[in-house]
Amino acid sequence: VLDEVKHMHASGVMQKSELAGGKSGQNLRYSAAEVRGDVVCFVEGTEEACQTIRLLKELSDQVVAKLEEHVPELKGEVLQRGRLMCTCYP
pTM to 2 decimals? Predict the structure, then answer.
């Protein structure tokens, strides 16, 4: 996974990140390089250079499915996620 994220970073796929506004959206956004130095991208796991990331996604889905068998509160809930966030911090 680390090699795949490093490759995405080196190839320019990742973009400068910014701090979102929080649950209420009222917080300030920090995008200045002095404050935020991380870069981010979102992947489905199906991209050409993301085979290991896809495997990690599939394994985590299996863990969640197993948990559903043992945690009554999860039964009947639709558990799904969107794209995966890959981030490099300075």
Answer: 0.69
